[in-house]
TrEMBL record:
<dbReference type="Pfam" id="PF00753">
    <property type="entry name" value="Lactamase_B"/>
</dbReference>
<feature type="transmembrane region" description="Helical">
    <location>
        <begin position="415"/>
        <end position="437"/>
    </location>
</feature>
<feature type="transmembrane region" description="Helical">
    <location>
        <begin position="475"/>
        <end position="494"/>
    </location>
</feature>
<keyword id="KW-1133">Transmembrane helix</keyword>
<feature type="domain" description="Metallo-beta-lactamase">
    <location>
        <begin position="532"/>
        <end position="722"/>
    </location>
</feature>
<feature type="transmembrane region" description="Helical">
    <location>
        <begin position="348"/>
        <end position="367"/>
    </location>
</feature>
<dbReference type="Pfam" id="PF13567">
    <property type="entry name" value="DUF4131"/>
</dbReference>
<feature type="transmembrane region" description="Helical">
    <location>
        <begin position="47"/>
        <end position="65"/>
    </location>
</feature>
<feature type="transmembrane region" description="Helical">
    <location>
        <begin position="241"/>
        <end position="264"/>
    </location>
</feature>
<protein>
    <submittedName>
        <fullName>DNA internalization-related competence protein ComEC/Rec2</fullName>
    </submittedName>
</protein>
<dbReference type="InterPro" id="IPR004477">
    <property type="entry name" value="ComEC_N"/>
</dbReference>
<dbReference type="InterPro" id="IPR025405">
    <property type="entry name" value="DUF4131"/>
</dbReference>
<dbReference type="InterPro" id="IPR001279">
    <property type="entry name" value="Metallo-B-lactamas"/>
</dbReference>
<keyword id="KW-0812">Transmembrane</keyword>
<feature type="transmembrane region" description="Helical">
    <location>
        <begin position="379"/>
        <end position="403"/>
    </location>
</feature>
<dbReference type="InterPro" id="IPR036866">
    <property type="entry name" value="RibonucZ/Hydroxyglut_hydro"/>
</dbReference>
<dbReference type="InterPro" id="IPR052159">
    <property type="entry name" value="Competence_DNA_uptake"/>
</dbReference>
Length: 780
């Protein structure tokens, strides 16, 4: 089975490539590999593994090419198009829009309906900002404006573009306010329609605060789970229960088996030779498959379904099998279905978790001296407690590498939450949904039971969080050199007694955690890629300052929690010495709540403190304009001041920060406009700078000729959105900076920008180039 691991490795490796090799080159390489394997595999068996590695690489490349071919052509971008097709999946609502997936049947120009486009994406993500609302299964003719899939590129950040690519989305866009026509109403039945009806039934029926989690458990839609509940379950290590996972499918597999076995016994009354277990296996697969359809086929669901089908087939054929073989077959089939599945954190956690359980329970002898109900219950309880211990220790390294945190509350939290959700909440929820279609009088009772069960889970988790006083979610960051020691230590801990030395393993694990992380350079500045907004992190060896927190995108997603905090955690940063919010515009302050909720902030300085007080989330807000200069690790910081008019625009209240190091200067100018720039130019203290964060993202209302001539930056950074509606940076402003020899860098094109000073030399990293993947746009 080792050859299958090499095959999977080849598929996964393709996802790390900056460009895809040509298919003709791969064909030639594969032909040569087959030729060599034919003559050498008997003498060198390892050659066969290399062949399967290459086969996986070829499959991953072919699949990647197909995904790229499905993207919209550049000459169709930002044009008015008419599309006809069907609404698929579950539409998502937030405070700004409705977002839905659209399967395209036909597409043509809004100004020429005579000919449809031959090469057009099969699937789109469409937003409706108007009153128009669609339902799953409806067929529409829509006038839209589209663009190619694109996401932010930040260190430690989520790759939204890869997520769209994995789902086959070839373009994103929005509905124009032109003629849009409903072609066909919602059909009476389809899986998507059933999921939609169940979602809407539960949204309208339930009045519980746990409604979002119940919707997630029923149909796999997590968009309605509010931030507070997400945070609660992440801090207690129970967030795996929100999505429909292997635990829930395993329960339905057992239920299906017993129902099928009962039907099989009834059949035996008329056909004595019929084996009742056959019906049990069939019904077990049918139950899990149907629940997987309702769940929307996420990675844990697919993995569990494949493993159950493999096991059932082996039992039907009366073949012996090893649990690890079924896991490996599931791994291969998941990657064949989704070649970029490795970009899903759930992929690694799911397979690692099952692998750990197989390693610790499969093939080990369990001695039971006495039988009986009490002893059987005790044995099951011991196995359940041990499984929680195995999951906690076994996933410590994957969690540290992937999300840099692990909850010490996870074992006691899961001890109650897993059985309560799996064996009570989910069954009651499913029964309530079935009663909705058959016995409406009973649906309320079972729905209330499910709500009550989730309420108990919430109370238990909340109690643990209060008892733990929020200190039991430590950040875990391993030095890269210590990861090998940590993995070996966990392996020793999980080995059976008599084989592994658990004390040596525990000592090695503690030692790997104590190895210090790499030392910081003298000065480091990271300009995050947050779209149309600003977020800059300045670090010295012993201090860190965050300047602005980026925008608020939707009611459940902001730059603070979605971009800044993951990076801070990846660097082991639990607190910020200073957080500066230049002014009160949403593209600068939108992520503040997300940062304050997850990070300790010692000082919070605002450009407009009178408009915002956040004492309940962090320190009292102070005015940045009255702060005195200070020094960290030989780095000087100073807010540039000027006479601020009380009735001035919010932009002209921006905190302007000057950072100076060994004669090098950085100026973070916020959104100041011409009036403020004239005041600053009149001050003799304003001097040429090495790096300038362009005022107001490069707007034509800022960067006057006098200001540009005075600061004369060597590098100008535009923190702007890709093809943003404001046209930032303005062409005249770019020309103005070009005239003084400034090197332009734009986060829209470069991704996050990292500036590092060490030994008086400057190193610049553009993450869209340094962390390039083959799906990033080549010509922008």
């Amino acid at each position: 089975m080792a050859i299958l691991l090499f095959f999977c490795s080849g598929i996964i490796f393709v996802g790390c490539l900056p460009e895809l090799p040509s298919l003709s080159f791969l064909l030639a390489l594969l032909s040569g590999a087959f030729f060599c394997t034919f003559f050498l595999h008997k003498k060198f068996p390892f050659v066969l593994c290399l062949l399967f590695l290459l086969l996986g690489f070829c499959y991953g490349t072919w699949a990647g090419s197909r995904l790229l071919e499905n993207q919209i052509l550049p000459d169709l971008v930002e044009r008015d198009l008419v599309i006809e097709g069907r609404v698929t999946g579950l539409p998502q609502e937030n405070n700004r829009r409705q977002l839905f997936s659209f399967a395209v049947k036909q597409a043509y120009s809004a100004y020429d309906h005579s000919a449809s486009f031959e090469h057009f994406p099969d699937k789109l993500n469409i937003s409706s900002y108007s009153d128009l609302r669609v339902k799953t299964g409806e067929e529409w003719r829509l006038t839209v404006k589209l663009k190619r899939p694109r996401g932010f590129v930040n260190p430690g950040g989520f790759d939204y573009q890869a997520s769209l690519l994995r789902r086959g989305v070839g373009a994103t866009g929005y509905i124009r306010q032109d003629e849009n026509l409903l072609l066909k109403p919602q059909p009476k039945f389809s899986i998507d329609v059933l999921r939609f009806e169940l979602q809407q039934w539960l949204i309208n029926k339930s009045q519980s605060t746990e409604k979002g989690i119940l919707v997630a458990l029923l149909v796999g839609d997590t968009s309605l789970v509010d931030r507070e509940r997400w945070g609660e379950m992440i801090k207690t290590g129970t967030n795996h229960l929100i999505a429909i996972s292997g635990l829930h499918l395993g329960f339905f597999a057992i239920v299906g088996f017993f129902i099928g076995n009962l039907i099989g016994r009834c059949v035996q009354i008329f056909w004595h030779k019929y084996p009742s277990v056959v019906s049990g296996y069939i019904f077990s697969v049918l139950f899990t498959f149907f629940y997987s359809l309702i769940a929307g086929f996420n990675i844990p669901t697919i993995r569990t379904l494949i493993m159950l089908v493999v096991v059932q087939l082996m039992l039907l054929w009366r073949r012996s099998f090893r649990a690890r073989d079924s896991l490996l077959i599931a791994l291969v089939l998941v990657l064949l279905y989704d070649p970029l599945a490795a970009y899903d954190i759930g992929f690694w956690l799911s397979f690692c978790a099952v692998g750990m359980l197989i390693f610790c329970f499969s093939g080990r002898i369990q001695i039971t001296r006495r039988l009986g109900l009490m002893n059987s219950t005790r044995n099951y309880l011991i196995v359940f407690v041990k499984s929680q211990w195995v999951m906690f220790i076994g996933l410590l390294i994957p969690l540290a590498i992937l999300i840099h945190t692990s909850s010490l509350l996870a074992p006691p939290a899961n001890f109650v939450a897993i059985p309560l959700v799996t064996f009570f909440v989910v069954p009651c929820l499913i029964i309530s949904a079935l009663c909705h279609f058959s016995f409406p009088g009973l649906e309320d009772f079972f729905l209330h039971c499910a709500e009550w069960g989730m309420h108990l889970v919430h109370k238990w988790l909340n109690y643990l969080l209060i008892a733990g006083t929020g200190k039991l979610n430590p950040l875990i960051n391993f030095n890269p050199c210590a990861i090998g020691v940590a993995v070996l230590s966990v392996f020793l801990i999980l080995l059976p007694r008599g084989i592994g030395n658990k004390y040596i393993g525990a000592a090695g694990l503690i030692l790997s955690l104590l190895v210090p992380l790499k030392s910081l350079p003298e000065l480091q500045m990271l300009v995050f890629d947050v779209g149309q907004g600003t977020a800059v992190l300045v670090r010295t060896p012993n201090h860190q300052l965050l300047y602005d927190t980026g925008p608020l995108y939707t009611e459940n997603f902001d730059a603070g929690s979605g971009i800044i905090v993951p990076y801070l955690q990846s660097q082991g940063i639990e607190s910020l010495d200073v957080l500066v919010v230049s002014h009160n515009d949403q593209d600068h302050i939108g992520g503040l709540d997300g940062v304050l909720a997850a990070t300790q902030v010692k000082k919070l300085w605002l450009g407009e403190p009178e408009k915002l007080q956040r004492n309940e989330l962090g320190p009292g807000a102070e005015n940045c304009h009255i702060q005195k200069p200070w020094q960290w690790d030989q780095i000087n910081f100073q807010f540039v001041s000027w006479p601020i008019q009380p009735n001035a625009k919010a932009n002209n209240h921006s905190c302007v920060l000057m950072v100076e190091f060994n004669g090098h200067r950085i100026l973070l100018a916020g959104d100041i406009e011409k009036e403020v720039e004239r005041n600053l130019v009149a001050q003799e203290s304003l001097a040429p700078v090495d790096i300038l964060l362009a005022p107001h993202h490069g707007s034509h209302t800022s960067s006057t000729a006098e200001f540009v001539a005075r600061v004369r930056p060597q590098t100008v950074v535009y923190s702007a959105g890709f093809h943003n509606q404001h046209g930032h940076p303005h062409a005249d402003i770019k020309a103005r900076y070009d005239s003084v020899g400034a090197m332009p860098l734009n986060t829209a094109l470069s991704g996050a920008l990292e500036f590092t000073w060490q030994d008086d030399s400057l190193k610049i990293i553009q993450y869209r180039q340094s962390a390039r993947r083959y799906w990033f746009d080549v010509n922008e």
